[in-house]
Amino acid sequence: MKPAPTPLFPVSEALEARLSGVPLVVMLDVDGTLAPIAPRPDAAIVPAETRRAIATLAARDDMRVVLVSGRAAADARRMVSALHVWVIGNHGFEITGPDGEELVDQQVAHYRPIVAQAARRLEPQVAHVPGVFLEDKGWTLSLHYRIADPAVVPKLRAAVEEIAAQLGLRLTHGKQVLEIRPPVRVDKGTAVLLLGLKLGGLGDSGACVFIGDDQTDEDAFRALRSRAGHAVTVRVLHGDETTPTAAEFSACDPIEVRAFLEWLVRWRT
Prior knowledge:
The protein has 269 residues and is an alpha/beta fold. Helices cover 36% and strands 20% of the residues. It has 2 domains: 6-104 and 186-268, HAD superfamily/HAD-like (Rossmann fold); 108-181, Alpha-Beta Plaits, CATH 3.30.70. The protein is built from 9 helices and 13 strands. Strand 7 (133-136) and strand 8 (141-144) form a beta hairpin. It starts with 5 loop residues before the first strand and ends with a helix.
């Protein structure tokens, strides 16, 4: 059994030391981490106070801020609306820089029309199911069923599994969401290592912290803890949630994440 993660607050001197490198790369999941979980993706909002803290951190010369989301990169950027921010979107399948530069693995690019074909096949099967929402993110598909009748989920899952298998795509599961992705070894873990190295957070003089709340964030926790021992990993457990995690630390909710970001602003200043 994995040990329970250590509460993030109060921030210890040992944790301060691990966050003191330059640059400090702050990597943040969006839904459930910055924005409270919402019934539908289009209803999620990152509070103004959180956006303000992110903007302040991103403007500092000794820090880099990266959003790491299952959303399309442009959508995640819209939600936070801060300058100087990098975005890992679609669970790692796309990376965009502050100036709009785009990094897409050529292995992934091959599958974009196949993902579009999956969307065309799946949409008629779910369009009339109450509480089910298909999110087409170009590089991946997300089928949300948070507000659907639980009785429809097995049949829904079977339909998605069949389409993914027919087209040679990969199916993964998140919090009341099914994800169809290209069958390429790309995830939040590979993406945070790639960008963390590029931005200097995983080098000897740098520092890195990643905060997330979903099962897909576990890929990033495991990758960072195995390849960059000084990196700080934080799982948002939403109150009394006891989900097993590879993260070293825990936070209670997006409010505590915001408190940590505001603490970083004061501490690094």
